[in-house]
Amino acid sequence: MKNMKEIERMVTMFAEGYAIAAIAATLHVDRKTVRKYVYQEDFSEPFPTRTGRKSPLDPFKPTIQAWLAEDARVRYKQRHTAERVYQRLQDEYGDRFTCSYSTVQRYIKQLRAERPAQSTGTLELEWHPGTAQVDFGTADVYWQPGDTLVHAVKYLVVSFPFSNAALWQYFPGETAECVVHGLQAIWQQIGGVPSRVVFDNATGIGRRIGEVIRYADLFERFKVHYGFDATFCNPDAGHEKGYGKRAIM
Question: Would residue 119 count as lying in a domain?
């Protein structure tokens, strides 16, 4: 079975007008294999697979990643140390957080080893038709009229810089499942799919490590199915994601 990168290459070449025989010869695969994937309509994984042994830190990893990402915007002395992350997790999650300090320390060391000291990637500032930006925001809402308790909810915002338009979808979180569901609903609402979509690094669809982009498998299948080009903002270049941030209320 081919991986999603190989399948995406086949689908892209077919969409560009290459014949099945030419694709097979170029990618060194059987014609039947090419035909199977270029005409396949559903790339959803048929059955969920069990992952390896889970860490008790797994539910808190997105939070840690978000905190460390925010550190890039503050002074060095204000950034999170492993000790500060551990203390903050204890303070904010109480009895739900049961990990040891060494577990937190090892994970932060791993993240910092994967993160380059300085990113050199840039994105063009001129926005073209068919380009969208995707980001998450947080809103305070009341569940019903007269309710005095404020609830914080997440919302996915898809903005179109060229036309100065934006649409929203509300969700309980920022997972890849929320992103895929929200984008599908918005694509159906506008009656089309943008050719290029720029994502904020905290949207849950994957992550960018230097020049390497690793997508969640669910989003990879969604991207191949709809045939759009996806990329991440440069985390150290705020001007690249300014338009999407302005669309967040």
Answer: no
Check: pTM over 0.70? Answer yes or no. no
Which structural domain range is residue 102 located in? Answer: 58-114
Cα–Cα distance, 133 to 189 (Å, whole number) = 16
**Which CATH number belongs to the domain containing residue 229 in this structure?**
3.30.420.10
Strands (E), the chain: 131-141, 151-160, 165-171, 196-199, 206-209, 212-215, 229-232
What whole-number distance in Å separates Cα of residue 131 and Cα of residue 161?
A: 7
Within this chain, do residues 65 and 99 fall inside the same structural domain, yes or no?
A: yes
Question: For the range 211-216, what are the long-range contacts, defined as Cβ-Cβ under 8 Å and sequence gap of 24 or more?
Answer: 211/121, 216/176
Same domain, 234 and 137: yes
Q: What is the mean pLDDT of each run of 10 residues along the chain (249 residues)?
A: 83 88 91 88 62 81 88 71 91 91 90 63 57 84 75 85 82 86 90 87 71 82 88 60 49
Distance CA 164, CA 113 (A): 39
Task: Mark whether 86 and 193 lie in a shared domain.
Answer: no
The answer to the question of residue 51 being in a domain is: no
Closest CA to 65 of 104, 118, 98, 101: 104
| Nearest to 200, CA basis, from 106, 127, 135 | 135
Q: Which residues contact 201 (CB under 8 A, 6 or more apart)?
A: 69, 207, 208, 232, 233, 235
